[in-house]
Amino acid sequence: MSAVPPEAPKDCPLCPRLVAYREENARDEPDWFNGAAPSFGDANARLVIVGLAPGRTGANRTGRPFTGDYAGELLYGTLKKLGFAEGTYRADPKDGFKLIDAMITNAVRCAPPENKPTPAEITTCRQFLAARLEALPRLRVIFALGSIAHESVLRAHGLKPSVAKFAHGAEAALPNGRTLISSYHCSRYNTQTRRLTTEMFEDVMGRAKALIDA
């Protein structure tokens, strides 16, 4: 097992720019979470969804991935529709919403300015992603939201990005019998521009469920 913990400390000091941004947000909004957002879900999950990073007013505010920003509406709605969640999602970590056989994490655990982590920050935080994936004994499918998450999952498994090009619906075999499935990110921009429709997202998530149930 990895010596690195699967969750970064809330006040993780490793990336100076992200620390400065976190401290700026804490000054402006002291009641927010303002820290490295922990993963959320089932510790025995067979499905892990990997996002890019916490949004400033999403997980950086609430402390739960994809909670409080638009992307969570489609993600959590789809997970519930496919049986990976129960309860009512209210964009509040106290809403009692629960994931079943699924977990959500991020390639970068701290909110970056303009939602854009640097390559160095992505690399630095990858140790926590690798440890998170290693700590899930039943993991079968990793669902990457966007190209950065896709690449980070590959590198966390010791693979070069060239072995599997990112595309919506792309699949790649990973070590230990795992499968990587990738999707366009369920961001407001992608859904409003129709680059990603609800049907497209449900289809590729449904493929992940089919692989798990096979």
Provide a descriptive summary of the structure in words:
With 214 residues, the protein is α/β, with parallel strands linked by helices. The protein has a single domain, classed as 3-Layer(aba) Sandwich (Uracil-DNA Glycosylase, subunit E). The chain is built from seven helices and eight strands. The chain has a six-stranded mixed beta sheet, sandwiched between helices. A two-stranded antiparallel sheet has the order 3-4. A hairpin with a 5-residue loop joins strand 7 (171-173) and strand 8 (179-183). Helix 4 (119-134) crosses helix 5 (147-156). The longest helix has 16 residues, at 119-134. The model has no long low-confidence stretch (mean pLDDT 96).
- Overall 3D form: globular
Strand order, sheet with most strands: 1-5-2-6-8-7
Instruction: Specify the CATH architecture.
Output: 3-Layer(aba) Sandwich
Q: Structural class of the helix and strand makeup?
A: alpha/beta
What is the CATH homology-level superfamily?
Uracil-DNA glycosylase-like domain
Mean pLDDT: 96
* Gap between N and C termini: 28 Å
Oligomer: single chain
Total number of helices: 7
How many domains comprise the coordinates? 1
Q: How much beta, percentage-wise?
A: 5-15%
What is Rg? 16 Å
**SSE pattern, N- to C-terminal:** HEEHHEEEHEHEEHH
Which topology does CATH recognise?
A: Uracil-DNA Glycosylase, subunit E
Helix content: 25-40%
